[in-house]
Amino acid sequence: MSVSDLAQNAKAWPFEQARLLKKRLDKLGRKSGPVVFETGYGPSGLPHMGTFGEVVRTTMVLRAFDALTGGAYEPELICVSDDMDGMRKVPDNLPQQDMLNQHLQEPLTVVPDPFGTHESFGAHMNARLRGFLDGFGFTYTFQSATELYKSGAYDAMLKRAAERYDDIMAVMLPTLGAERQATYSPFLPISPKTGRVLYVPMKSVDAQAGTITFDDEDGSETTLPVTGGHVKLQWKPDFGMRWAALGVDFEMFGKDHQTNAPIYSRICKILGAEPPTQFVYELFLDQKGEKISKSKGNGLSVEDWLKYAPPTSLAYYNFVKPKTAKRLYFDVIPKAVDEYLQHLAAYHGQEPAQQLENPAWHIHDGNPPTDTSPISFALMLNLASAASAHNAEVMWGFIGRYVDGATPQSHPLIDQLAGFAVQYFQDFVKPTKSFRAPTDMERAAMEDLLVRLKAMGPDERDAAKIQDEVFSAGKTQDFENLRDWFQALYEVLLGQSQGPRFGSFVAIYGVTETIALIEQGLAGELANT
């Protein structure tokens, strides 16, 4: 069967969304041509993980759709930055707070750049967005809301919004409190005198002329055309207008937009367009379980993750259970790396139908590499811990013996993981290491393990065989639960409470080196470090 045929029944969530999109296009009678996937970006603060997550997940749906339809359409991803929004408040994590506070309510593409590298704050943030998206190799078209408003790309829909002003107000007013209803307008004029985005009531809307009339900040009555960048829309009407103006077919957004999604859709329909297929994902949480915020700068950034793990592991973390809220902090990285590696290792041995369910298919655009790692990231971390590694070269002293003929050049993924493991160990594991002395029962088991390891010989590399001996040594003592025995090994020898299979650790660290480590632990030399 072809990939297109298999995709008809694939259960992976990107294929589920692709089928919903195809159903929408069939309903509209569209059998070919462009299909627009959109992501939106609010550049009021530094780009964060949620921004990346939205783009990588949308890309996964786009690829699934292309596979499902056998290339019959021309899918395109556009990334729209809402950079014409007024700066409502100054994020705490930005420099030059006093300067920025002098430019409140000005469009972000007018506010000066506090970093001094671009012509405006909005331009700086847009460059940050494009920079890390480009770093991941995404194929997308960047769109600036400022340019869309000023270039005339939105003019037709803005005129239609003026014509259907009462219909839009009928949608919006019931969603507002009484006080806000009295002053609300979907149109936000840009003051010709102060340059600020104004939240003022309309005195009149001339649909035929395509103009609005309002009182400027100094009280003077002012009339502006709704076109040409003189006016922008409030964010909810803007969402629906953008869908209509750009012909958006698919968009996903966070759960915080879910209650407003029907409003976006109704605005889109009022403007004469069919709303896109929509997918709602759960939000990332920081280490305290709070929503990640651009203004707070809490949680984990893309740059933070990439300091300790490959980008593919970050894509994997975004793929898994998008409708489940997940913590996004440093301690989730090792598990995400190892789960990604497991899926990658399994991929090429799977049947085609299984491959479409494998996250590796979606992470690698249907063509995962064959290069993988026989060493887990968790094991790398334990190796770094036991060797007190300060660079990847120290790690290769052990890796080269464990993987026959392996070098950093022949196994770049292993080399990459070794470097990440050293960095993660230095920053997070080493500062928290806490050795302890063994109990009498643990000491007896470790002494028995020493005898067993010495009998195996220094060149033993069979992790399963070593694990059997470790298991047997634990069984010689009356541990209530053998898990306590393995935990004791890590706490006494590595200063941490958990790790991968101890047999695998011994196989890579070396039997001779492990014997020395156990002898140090029994002598109390590790507990005193």
Overview of the structural elements:
By secondary structure, the chain is α/β, with parallel strands linked by helices. It is 48% helix and 11% strand. It contains 24 helices and 12 strands. It has helices at residues 3-7, 13-27, 49-68, 97-101, 121-135, 145-151, 155-163, 165-172, 178-181, 235-246, 261-270, 302-308, 311-319, 333-347, 352-357, 359-363, 377-387, 392-402, 412-429, 440-456, 463-475, 482-493, 502-509, 511-523, and strands at residues 33-41, 73-81, 141-144, 187-189, 204-206, 211-215, 221-225, 231-233, 248-254, 277-281, 284-285, 326-327. A 5-stranded parallel sheet has the order 3-2-1-9-10, sandwiched between helices. Helix 2 (13-27) crosses helix 3 and helix 17 (377-387) packs across helix 19. The longest helix has 20 residues, at 49-68. The relative contact order is 0.09. The model has no long low-confidence stretch (mean pLDDT 94).
Structural topology:
Blueprint: H1 3-7, H2 13-27, E1 33-41, H3 49-68, E2 73-81, H4 97-101, H5 121-135, E3 141-144, H6 145-151, H7 155-163, H8 165-172, H9 178-181, E4 187-189, E5 204-206, E6 211-215, E7 221-225, E8 231-233, H10 235-246, E9 248-254, H11 261-270, E10 277-281, E11 284-285, H12 302-308, H13 311-319, E12 326-327, H14 333-347, H15 352-357, H16 359-363, H17 377-387, H18 392-402, H19 412-429, H20 440-456, H21 463-475, H22 482-493, H23 502-509, H24 511-523
Parallel strand pairs: 1-2, 1-9, 2-3, 9-10, 11-12
Antiparallel strand pairs: 4-8, 5-6, 6-7
